[in-house]
Structures are given as C-alpha cells and as structure tokens.
C-alpha cells in the first residue's frame, strides 16, 4: 500500500509539472541546442562523444565556474564577502593548486572518463535527441544524484578524518585553511577515487540518457566550487536549494577541521550532531555583532 501511495504521489507530481510546463514560453535556445546535438551525433562516434565530450564538459565547466571566485580577489568591493578575510589568496598557492589539478584531471580522472563509453554501451544508454529527458526530469535526476553523493561523501569524508588515516590522504586537501574555488578538486589521488565514487552511484541509479552524465557533472562542479569559493555572496541562486550547505558551512570545515562533513546538504551533520561546533561558532558571531552594534550606537 505504501509503495502504491508513493507511486501515485510521484505520478501526480509529474503530471503537475507537465501541466505547468505547458504554459511556459518556448525556450529560444532549444532549437540551436538540438541542431548542435544532432550535428555532434552525425560527426562523432559514441566513443568520442562519451570520452572526449565528457572531458571537455568537465574541464570547461570546472575552470569557467572558477573564474568568478578568481576575479573576486582583485575587486576590493567583493572583499567584504570573503569569509576568512585575514587569509587572502596567494599566487604561490593558486599555482600549486593548478598544477595538482592538471595531474589529477588527466592522470586520475581521465582514465575513469574513458570508461564512460563502455558504461553507456553495457547499460544501453541512449544518445539520441528524441530520447533525451525533459528539463524537469533531468533536474529531478540531478537532485537524486546529489542526495546519494551527499550521503556517500558524509560518511567517507568523516572516515578520512579519522586520526589514523587523516595524515596519509585527506590532509592534502586541507593544506588550504582558507579555501578558494579552484581548490575544490585539489586532493590526494586516493581521495579523488574514494570520494569520487559517490558521483557515479547516482549515475548508475538514474541514468537513462548520456545528457545526465554531463548535466550532473555541471551541477556537482557548480556546488563544490561554490562551497570552496571562500566567498559568501548574497543572492546566490544555490541558496534556494532546500538544506543547501553553502560556502560558509564548508569554509568552517576547512577552518576548524572537525565537523560539517557533508558535501551539499546539512541534514547528515544535523542528524549526527557534527555541526554542533559550527552552530556554536555562528551563535558567538551573532553575539559579537550585537555587541559591536551597541557600541556603535
């Protein structure tokens, strides 16, 4: 009975979204995107699309999403949004980070990306435009992937902080007490494999078209670069996502080293109480701000 109720709720939600979607204006970018997609299918093999296409999507998305945070360091106005203002970025740290990223991307992640084609062939994942899911289905799938990845990340990330193994693997990622966007994937190769596994679980569960691989890559990079940005910028659209952790939440993890282990959402830390120090820190900040206001008045 409970299963039938859940199915009925999901079907009703799907129909409701379809009804709302019917009233939305046509997307002017849809036809150009369709033409580009069909051109890609006509001129490249599935292996080339799955392998080199995925690599291009990852590299282009990663470094383009890093651009705003990189530019912020040169804009005096944006410094008021920097979370750890006493620890500015340095060229030395950013260059070291960039070199490690290139190694991880091409010697760790690229071999994994090379398996994408075989994954799509084994599970008969379609590439055709006609079988591409609608935008709201794709959005729901990405959210499902994020929920799964977040659970994996919380427990494995917390394990990597265990005192017996921390210094061998996860300590590399914590070289930067004040994170910046490009540092999101700065990690020990083993950590890239261990925590990166959570990214693929959702793909195995939800993937019904190759577009989900790329959409989920972009969503995951958008999230991880944002929480590592070091800037808590107002009007951030990601803050509209329910239970979204955000930059301030993860920045505290780098500053404190303990707690706030989840990647995207706050519920696992709340359930297990590993956000208690963060909550206490926020309360202390509020009290200090109230004292400063009283003195100013």
Features:
single chain, 11 helices, 65% helix, globular
How far is the first residue's CA from the last residue's CA?
Answer: 62 Å
Query: Strand percentage, roughly?
Result: under 5%
Secondary structure class reads mainly alpha
Please provide the count of β strands: 0
Taken in chain order, the helices and strands follow as: HHHHHHHHHHH
Give the fraction of residues assigned to helices: 55-70%
The whole-number mean of residue pLDDT values reads 91
Task: Describe, in plain words, how this protein is organized in 3D.
With 297 residues, the chain is mainly alpha-helical. 65% of the residues lie in helices and 0% in strands. The protein has helices spanning 2-23, 30-43, 46-72, 91-113, 116-122, 135-160, 189-206, 210-227, 246-256, 267-272, 276-296. Helix 3 (46-72) packs across helix 5. 29% of the residues are buried. It holds the Pfam family FA_hydroxylase. The chain crosses the membrane at residues 60-79, 100-120, 192-217. Residues 144-274 form the Fatty acid hydroxylase domain. One of its GO terms (molecular function) is monooxygenase activity.
